[in-house]
């Protein structure tokens, strides 16, 4: 069986009416093509020859909504000058630069792909751990150390502290050895600058805590004297201090670009530069592209001895209405009617009152008070009644630990 090229195939189709003495309609039925295609290809054969029978590009002659060439060039330049910036970061930077209508994040990503500046991501296994976040600044700090290499190939340490609520880099102290005294020096410096936290969490390193039944180490004694509650992560479970672990990765990338340091003083200079960049300039995906300093300064800070803060006013959330005319919010089912099926609503909490507005028109649809977890909230002014399949249990506050 001989394989025909596209040109030969279409040439055979176009010559069939003359060769077999059949009509164009019968030819098209035999080969499964439309008559419009037959006449188009016959016209191309007559005007341009056999070479014109090759398939042509389906790209449109004009693309009115395509990104302007100057903006695309600007995106490529930003990526070239900052190889670690992704589509989200570039999108945020364009907004900060005053671009009124920047391309969507997905569009920026496709532009980077088209220029060969990003590669396909590696597929990872689904994450099974549970995320948590404290509800106020200084409610919980995370502390740990990371090791770096200096110019002379000797090792040094950086003791880092991070606020759990805002991902704010509380402190970064360079030291030659990672001891309990070095850890407390970093802690003391951070307290002088930002105030003391209510709680502090660390791993089970000997710098931070003693073994079971042993005398408390220096770091433990100082925390206790200041009224700071000390928490420890689960052994062999770095996800408990995952925010700080991710911070270390970002710092290592910065250090690879701006290091290595000559000595401890030079390492401290690099740490200070990175800390300013991380807190005040770098948009953070987990903070809706805000900087940690913006989030850290929004709410009042917690101090040792304060009761644990609870989330009172939830930020606005945009949710899609189901076919049943309802949506799920904080483990409750709220009904607004099937007339809004497939549309989006914005849910805002003001104290104990929940406001539901239509996202597109900003029309207020409902005002209600949340019932117990698992309850169904019908339309009207009735309070939510528990479902038969769910027990009315108090709401669980998501956090790392009490």
From TrEMBL:
Residues 133-300 form the Integrase catalytic domain. It holds the Pfam family HTH_32. SUPFAM superfamilies: Homeodomain-like, Ribonuclease H-like. This is IS481 family transposase. NCBIfam families: transpos_IS481 (NF033577). Gene3D superfamilies: Ribonuclease H-like superfamily/Ribonuclease H, Winged helix-like DNA-binding domain superfamily/Winged helix DNA-binding domain. Transmembrane segments: none annotated. It comes from the Bacteria. InterPro entries: Homeodomain-like_sf, Integrase_cat-core, IS481-like_transpos, RNaseH-like_sf, RNaseH_sf, WH-like_DNA-bd_sf. One of its GO terms (biological process) is DNA integration. It comes from Antrihabitans stalactiti. Residues 300-319, 371-402 are annotated as: Disordered. PANTHER family: TRANSPOSASE, TRANSPOSASE RV3428C-RELATED. GO terms for molecular function: nucleic acid binding.
């Amino acid at each position: 069986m001989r394989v025909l090229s596209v040109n030969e195939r279409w040439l055979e189709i176009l010559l069939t009416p003359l060769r077999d003495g059949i009509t164009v309609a019968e030819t098209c039925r035999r080969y499964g093509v439309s008559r419009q295609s037959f006449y188009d290809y016959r016209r191309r054969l007559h005007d341009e020859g056999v070479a014109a029978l090759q398939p042509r590009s389906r790209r449109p002659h004009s693309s009115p909504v395509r990104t302007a060439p100057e903006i695309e060039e600007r995106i490529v330049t930003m990526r070239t000058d900052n190889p670690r910036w992704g589509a989200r970061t570039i999108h945020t930077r364009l907004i900060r630069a005053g671009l009124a209508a920047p391309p969507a994040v997905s569009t920026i990503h496709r532009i980077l792909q088209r220029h060969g500046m990003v590669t396909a991501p590696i597929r990872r296994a689904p994450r099974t751990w549970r995320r948590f976040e404290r509800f106020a600044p200084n409610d919980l700090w995370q502390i740990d150390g990371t090791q770096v290499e200096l110019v002379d190939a000797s090792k040094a340490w950086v003791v880092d502290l991070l606020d759990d609520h805002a991902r704010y880099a509380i402190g970064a102290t360079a030291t030659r050895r990672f001891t309990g005294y070095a850890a407390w020096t970093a802690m003391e410096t951070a307290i002088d600058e930002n105030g003391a936290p209510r709680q502090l969490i660390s791993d089970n390193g000997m710098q931070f805590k003693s073994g079971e039944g042993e005398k408390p180490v220096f770091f433990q004694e100082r925390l206790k004297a200041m009224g700071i509650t000390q928490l420890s992560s689960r052994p062999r479970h770095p996800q408990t201090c995952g925010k700080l672990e991710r911070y270390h990765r970002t710092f290592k990338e910065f250090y690879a670009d701006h290091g290595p340091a000559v000595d401890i003083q030079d390492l401290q200079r690099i740490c200070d530069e990175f800390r300013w960049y991380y807190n005040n300039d770098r948009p953070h995906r987990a903070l809706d592209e805000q900087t940690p300093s913006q989030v850290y300064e929004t709410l009042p800070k917690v101090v040792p001895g304060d009761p644990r803060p609870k989330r009172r006013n939830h930020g606005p959330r945009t949710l899609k209405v189901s076919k049943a005319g309802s949506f799920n919010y904080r483990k409750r089912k709220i009904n607004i009617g099937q007339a809004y099926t497939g549309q989006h609503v914005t849910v805002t909490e003001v104290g104990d009152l929940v406001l539901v507005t239509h996202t597109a028109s900003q029309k207020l649809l409902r005002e209600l008070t949340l019932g117990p977890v698992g309850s169904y909230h019908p339309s009207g002014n009735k309070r939510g009644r528990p479902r038969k399949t769910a027990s009315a249990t108090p709401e669980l506050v998501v956090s790392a630990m009490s």
